[in-house]
UniProtKB/TrEMBL annotation:
The lineage of its organism: Eukaryota, Viridiplantae, Streptophyta, Embryophyta, Tracheophyta. Pfam families: RVT_2. This is Reverse transcriptase Ty1/copia-type domain-containing protein. Residues 1-146 form the Reverse transcriptase Ty1/copia-type domain. InterPro entries: DNA/RNA_pol_sf, RVT_2.
Length: 242
Protein backbone atom coordinates (compact mmCIF):
# COMPACT_ATOMS: atom_id res chain seq x y z
CA UNK A 1 0.00 0.00 0.00
CA UNK A 2 1.26 3.50 -0.78
CA UNK A 3 2.23 5.60 2.19
CA UNK A 4 -0.86 7.60 3.26
CA UNK A 5 -0.75 11.43 3.21
CA UNK A 6 0.65 12.82 6.44
CA UNK A 7 2.58 9.64 7.19
CA UNK A 8 5.09 9.68 4.36
CA UNK A 9 8.68 8.83 5.25
CA UNK A 10 10.50 11.73 3.61
CA UNK A 11 13.75 9.80 3.63
CA UNK A 12 12.12 6.94 1.71
CA UNK A 13 9.19 8.47 -0.19
CA UNK A 14 9.13 5.68 -2.80
CA UNK A 15 8.68 2.91 -0.22
CA UNK A 16 5.33 1.20 0.30
CA UNK A 17 3.67 -0.26 3.40
CA UNK A 18 3.48 -3.98 4.07
CA UNK A 19 0.05 -4.82 5.51
CA UNK A 20 -0.22 -7.52 8.14
CA UNK A 21 -4.01 -7.73 7.78
CA UNK A 22 -6.75 -6.46 5.47
CA UNK A 23 -7.93 -2.89 5.94
CA UNK A 24 -11.58 -1.98 5.49
CA UNK A 25 -12.15 -0.56 2.03
CA UNK A 26 -9.39 -2.41 0.21
CA UNK A 27 -10.25 -4.61 -2.76
CA UNK A 28 -9.01 -7.72 -1.00
CA UNK A 29 -10.77 -6.96 2.30
CA UNK A 30 -14.04 -8.80 1.47
CA UNK A 31 -12.09 -11.86 0.36
CA UNK A 32 -9.94 -11.78 3.49
CA UNK A 33 -13.04 -11.52 5.68
CA UNK A 34 -14.74 -14.44 3.93
CA UNK A 35 -11.60 -16.58 4.25
CA UNK A 36 -11.35 -15.72 7.95
CA UNK A 37 -14.98 -16.54 8.70
CA UNK A 38 -15.23 -19.64 6.50
CA UNK A 39 -12.01 -21.04 8.01
CA UNK A 40 -13.51 -20.65 11.47
CA UNK A 41 -16.69 -22.44 10.38
CA UNK A 42 -14.79 -25.32 8.79
CA UNK A 43 -12.70 -25.72 11.93
CA UNK A 44 -15.95 -25.75 13.93
CA UNK A 45 -17.27 -28.78 12.06
CA UNK A 46 -19.22 -27.11 9.27
CA UNK A 47 -18.89 -28.03 5.61
CA UNK A 48 -19.50 -25.78 2.62
CA UNK A 49 -22.46 -26.50 0.36
CA UNK A 50 -21.59 -27.53 -3.19
CA UNK A 51 -24.58 -25.51 -4.44
CA UNK A 52 -23.70 -22.23 -2.69
CA UNK A 53 -20.22 -21.32 -1.35
CA UNK A 54 -21.83 -19.00 1.22
CA UNK A 55 -23.96 -21.77 2.75
CA UNK A 56 -22.46 -23.84 5.56
CA UNK A 57 -23.97 -26.91 7.25
CA UNK A 58 -23.08 -28.76 10.43
CA UNK A 59 -24.47 -32.23 11.18
CA UNK A 60 -23.74 -33.66 14.62
CA UNK A 61 -25.21 -36.03 17.17
CA UNK A 62 -26.93 -33.04 18.78
CA UNK A 63 -28.66 -31.86 15.61
CA UNK A 64 -28.15 -29.74 12.50
CA UNK A 65 -27.06 -26.13 12.05
CA UNK A 66 -27.36 -24.19 8.79
CA UNK A 67 -25.58 -20.86 8.34
CA UNK A 68 -25.80 -18.44 5.42
CA UNK A 69 -23.23 -15.65 5.07
CA UNK A 70 -23.84 -12.55 2.94
CA UNK A 71 -20.95 -10.08 3.30
CA UNK A 72 -21.17 -9.47 7.07
CA UNK A 73 -24.81 -10.48 7.55
CA UNK A 74 -25.49 -13.95 8.91
CA UNK A 75 -28.60 -16.11 8.94
CA UNK A 76 -28.43 -19.03 11.34
CA UNK A 77 -31.02 -21.75 11.84
CA UNK A 78 -31.02 -25.28 13.14
CA UNK A 79 -32.92 -28.24 14.48
CA UNK A 80 -33.18 -26.85 18.04
CA UNK A 81 -33.14 -23.45 19.75
CA UNK A 82 -30.61 -24.70 22.29
CA UNK A 83 -28.14 -25.67 19.57
CA UNK A 84 -28.56 -22.30 17.86
CA UNK A 85 -28.03 -20.35 21.10
CA UNK A 86 -24.91 -22.36 21.91
CA UNK A 87 -23.31 -21.61 18.56
CA UNK A 88 -24.27 -17.92 18.75
CA UNK A 89 -22.37 -17.80 22.04
CA UNK A 90 -19.36 -19.36 20.31
CA UNK A 91 -19.54 -16.76 17.52
CA UNK A 92 -19.56 -13.94 20.08
CA UNK A 93 -16.30 -15.23 21.55
CA UNK A 94 -14.62 -15.09 18.14
CA UNK A 95 -16.19 -12.05 16.44
CA UNK A 96 -17.75 -8.74 17.44
CA UNK A 97 -21.39 -9.35 16.57
CA UNK A 98 -24.87 -7.96 17.11
CA UNK A 99 -27.78 -10.39 17.46
CA UNK A 100 -30.85 -8.93 15.71
CA UNK A 101 -33.16 -11.71 16.85
CA UNK A 102 -35.62 -13.62 14.67
CA UNK A 103 -35.33 -13.13 10.91
CA UNK A 104 -37.96 -10.82 9.41
CA UNK A 105 -36.31 -9.25 6.35
CA UNK A 106 -33.29 -10.21 4.24
CA UNK A 107 -32.25 -8.95 0.80
CA UNK A 108 -35.77 -7.91 -0.15
CA UNK A 109 -37.38 -11.11 1.13
CA UNK A 110 -39.80 -10.79 4.04
CA UNK A 111 -40.38 -13.59 6.54
CA UNK A 112 -43.79 -13.90 8.21
CA UNK A 113 -44.29 -16.52 10.90
CA UNK A 114 -47.56 -18.47 10.96
CA UNK A 115 -48.84 -21.26 13.20
CA UNK A 116 -47.72 -24.10 10.91
CA UNK A 117 -44.46 -22.66 9.59
CA UNK A 118 -43.45 -19.48 7.81
CA UNK A 119 -44.18 -17.53 4.65
CA UNK A 120 -41.47 -16.04 2.44
CA UNK A 121 -42.74 -13.13 0.37
CA UNK A 122 -41.59 -9.93 -1.32
CA UNK A 123 -44.63 -7.70 -0.83
CA UNK A 124 -42.65 -4.53 -0.17
CA UNK A 125 -40.31 -5.26 -3.07
CA UNK A 126 -43.31 -5.80 -5.37
CA UNK A 127 -44.93 -2.51 -4.36
CA UNK A 128 -41.64 -0.66 -4.81
CA UNK A 129 -41.31 -2.22 -8.26
CA UNK A 130 -44.78 -0.98 -9.21
CA UNK A 131 -43.76 2.50 -8.07
CA UNK A 132 -40.65 2.32 -10.27
CA UNK A 133 -42.82 1.39 -13.24
CA UNK A 134 -45.36 4.14 -12.41
CA UNK A 135 -48.02 1.43 -12.08
CA UNK A 136 -48.90 1.66 -8.39
CA UNK A 137 -52.53 2.47 -9.25
CA UNK A 138 -52.88 0.18 -12.28
CA UNK A 139 -55.81 -2.18 -12.76
CA UNK A 140 -54.90 -5.74 -11.63
CA UNK A 141 -55.27 -8.72 -13.93
CA UNK A 142 -55.88 -12.37 -13.05
CA UNK A 143 -53.11 -13.90 -15.19
CA UNK A 144 -49.51 -12.79 -15.90
CA UNK A 145 -49.77 -13.48 -19.63
CA UNK A 146 -52.44 -14.16 -22.23
CA UNK A 147 -52.77 -17.80 -23.23
CA UNK A 148 -52.31 -17.35 -26.97
CA UNK A 149 -50.04 -14.35 -27.30
CA UNK A 150 -48.45 -14.07 -30.73
CA UNK A 151 -45.45 -11.81 -31.06
CA UNK A 152 -45.75 -9.30 -33.86
CA UNK A 153 -42.40 -9.53 -35.58
CA UNK A 154 -42.59 -6.02 -37.12
CA UNK A 155 -43.63 -4.31 -33.90
CA UNK A 156 -42.06 -0.92 -33.22
CA UNK A 157 -38.74 -1.13 -31.38
CA UNK A 158 -38.37 0.73 -28.10
CA UNK A 159 -36.35 3.92 -28.46
CA UNK A 160 -34.83 3.38 -25.00
CA UNK A 161 -34.74 -0.31 -23.96
CA UNK A 162 -33.17 0.51 -20.56
CA UNK A 163 -36.52 0.66 -18.74
CA UNK A 164 -37.60 -2.66 -20.24
CA UNK A 165 -34.38 -4.39 -19.21
CA UNK A 166 -34.48 -2.87 -15.74
CA UNK A 167 -38.06 -4.00 -15.09
CA UNK A 168 -37.47 -7.51 -16.42
CA UNK A 169 -34.36 -7.84 -14.25
CA UNK A 170 -36.35 -6.71 -11.22
CA UNK A 171 -39.10 -9.21 -12.04
CA UNK A 172 -36.50 -11.96 -12.23
CA UNK A 173 -35.55 -11.24 -8.62
CA UNK A 174 -39.22 -11.33 -7.65
CA UNK A 175 -39.43 -14.93 -8.90
CA UNK A 176 -37.43 -15.97 -5.82
CA UNK A 177 -40.73 -16.23 -3.97
CA UNK A 178 -43.10 -16.04 -6.94
CA UNK A 179 -42.76 -19.17 -9.09
CA UNK A 180 -46.18 -18.34 -10.57
CA UNK A 181 -44.59 -15.62 -12.72
CA UNK A 182 -41.40 -17.51 -13.63
CA UNK A 183 -42.61 -18.75 -17.00
CA UNK A 184 -43.86 -15.31 -18.10
CA UNK A 185 -40.76 -13.50 -16.87
CA UNK A 186 -38.46 -16.02 -18.55
CA UNK A 187 -40.37 -15.49 -21.79
CA UNK A 188 -39.99 -11.70 -21.84
CA UNK A 189 -36.32 -12.13 -20.87
CA UNK A 190 -35.69 -13.57 -24.35
CA UNK A 191 -36.10 -10.12 -25.90
CA UNK A 192 -33.68 -8.10 -23.77
CA UNK A 193 -31.41 -7.42 -26.76
CA UNK A 194 -34.10 -5.72 -28.88
CA UNK A 195 -37.41 -5.24 -27.04
CA UNK A 196 -40.43 -3.85 -28.86
CA UNK A 197 -43.62 -2.10 -27.80
CA UNK A 198 -45.41 -5.47 -27.79
CA UNK A 199 -42.82 -6.92 -25.44
CA UNK A 200 -43.19 -3.93 -23.13
CA UNK A 201 -46.96 -4.46 -23.13
CA UNK A 202 -46.33 -8.02 -21.95
CA UNK A 203 -44.12 -6.76 -19.12
CA UNK A 204 -46.81 -4.32 -18.07
CA UNK A 205 -49.33 -7.16 -17.95
CA UNK A 206 -47.03 -9.12 -15.63
CA UNK A 207 -46.82 -6.04 -13.41
CA UNK A 208 -50.62 -5.74 -13.40
CA UNK A 209 -50.77 -9.35 -12.22
CA UNK A 210 -48.20 -8.56 -9.51
CA UNK A 211 -50.38 -5.63 -8.40
CA UNK A 212 -53.24 -8.02 -7.61
CA UNK A 213 -51.03 -10.68 -6.01
CA UNK A 214 -48.36 -8.64 -4.21
CA UNK A 215 -49.05 -10.51 -0.98
CA UNK A 216 -48.40 -13.95 -2.50
CA UNK A 217 -45.36 -15.95 -1.42
CA UNK A 218 -43.99 -19.34 -0.45
CA UNK A 219 -45.62 -21.10 2.50
CA UNK A 220 -43.03 -23.39 4.09
CA UNK A 221 -44.63 -25.73 6.59
CA UNK A 222 -42.82 -26.98 9.68
CA UNK A 223 -43.41 -30.63 8.87
CA UNK A 224 -40.62 -33.18 9.06
CA UNK A 225 -40.84 -34.01 5.35
CA UNK A 226 -40.82 -31.89 2.23
CA UNK A 227 -41.81 -33.26 -1.17
CA UNK A 228 -41.06 -31.24 -4.29
CA UNK A 229 -43.14 -31.78 -7.41
CA UNK A 230 -42.20 -30.50 -10.86
CA UNK A 231 -44.24 -30.44 -14.05
CA UNK A 232 -43.10 -29.90 -17.61
CA UNK A 233 -44.95 -29.04 -20.80
CA UNK A 234 -43.32 -30.82 -23.74
CA UNK A 235 -45.50 -29.61 -26.61
CA UNK A 236 -43.70 -26.26 -27.20
CA UNK A 237 -46.95 -24.41 -26.58
CA UNK A 238 -45.03 -21.53 -25.08
CA UNK A 239 -43.13 -20.96 -28.34
CA UNK A 240 -45.54 -20.52 -31.27
CA UNK A 241 -42.58 -19.68 -33.55
CA UNK A 242 -41.14 -23.19 -33.21
Amino acid sequence: MEQPPGFVNHEKPDHVCLLHKAIYGLKQAPRAWFDRFSTFLLESGFFCSTADPSLFINHSAHGTLVLLLYVDDIILTGSSDKLIDQFIAVLHTEFAMKDLGALHYFLGVEVSYVSDGLVLHQSKYAIDLLDRALMRDCKPTHTPMTQKFKTVMDSTALSDPHTYRSLVGALQYLTLTRPDISSSVNYVSQFMHAPTQDHFTMVRRILRYVKGTAHHGLHIQNSSTLDLYAFSDADWAGCPQT
